[in-house]
Amino acid sequence: MKLHLDAQPFGYEFDVAKTALVIIDMQRDFVEPGGFGASLGNDVRPLQAIVPALQNLLHAWRQVGGFVVHTREGHRPDLSDCPPAKVNRGSPALRIGDEGPMGRVLIWGAAGHAIIPELAPASGELVVDKPGKGAFYGTYLNEALQVRGITHLLITGVTTEVCVQTTMREANDRGYECLLIEDATESYFPAFKQAVLDMVRAQGAIVGWTARSEQVIGALNLSTEEGARA
Ligand code: TIU
Predict the structure, then answer these.
(1) Which of 119, 160, 184, 191 is the most exposed place for a label (fewest CB within 10 A)?
(2) Catalytic: 25?
(3) Can you tell me the distance from the alpha carbon of 2 to that of 15, in angstroms, rounded to the nearest whole number?
(4) According to the model, what pLDDT value does residue 92 have?
């Protein structure tokens, strides 16, 4: 069944069976003190504010049997998949691979690398480990979506202008129709978040659409009620 949202800059239509909810990098390393995000000098608290909206959206999406993709940014313990240009960027208190309060920063298996418990992946949901900002770079995400016939992506997570925007642009180039969920993505820099929302939907949705989580949940609830009446 086709669902319709009054998205920006104009209506967005999607079919749950051909759509994936993509949750980008909701890991302890980005949203909790002592992780990678904090080591770069950021106040991580604003990122925690989106968790309730994301939980509600995830719950509603699971209720209708929608496909879920979780991504995690991180590297192999020997850093063989992490270019020096990434390790050496900036002047962080802790560099990628260093031992921090949540284990080795941004390394597979460390406590900080884990997705926060509130959004823990459920059985049957795809978890994609990505070495870069974009979820399509160096991963099998495109193949995993193609075999399932996915054409539309609902994009959420952190941070809006880094991994979320990069992923949305990569997806756009691969032909996916992308909707960015405004209250389910966050940045360490409010102005950057606003700029991304404005940029992606400018020029007639040059990269994609934006809408709020309650609009998606409302459309899903309506489809469930209509399904029950049919
Ligand atoms: N630093 C920052 O804003 N983000 C990242 O390094 N990774 C993600 O966005 N996941």
Answers:
(1) 191
(2) yes
(3) 5
(4) 74
Name which residue sits closest to atom 7 of ligand 1, judged by CA: 163
pLDDT for res 184: 98
| Residue 221 alpha carbon to ligand 1 centre in Å | 33
pLDDT digits (tens, 9 = 90+) for 83-109: 999 999 877 778 999 999 999 999 999
Q: Residues lining ligand 1, judged by CB closer than 6 Å? A: 25, 30, 40, 73, 158-159, 162-163, 188
Q: Which residue in the list 25, 29, 133, 193 is annotated as catalytic?
A: 25
Indicate whether this model's pTM tops 0.90: yes
**Which one of the listed residues 29, 130, 133, 178 is annotated catalytic?**
130
Compute the distance between CA of residue 208 and CA of residue 170 in angstroms, rounded to an integer.
Answer: 11
- What is the best residue among 96, 162, 185 to mutate for testing ligand 1's pocket, by most ligand atoms within 8 Å of CB? 162
Give yes or no for a contact between 151 and 124, defined as CB atoms under 8 angstroms apart: no
The ranges of the chain with pLDDT < 50 are: none
Rg, C-alpha atoms of the chain: 17
**129 HSE (CA, 13 A, CB side):** 11
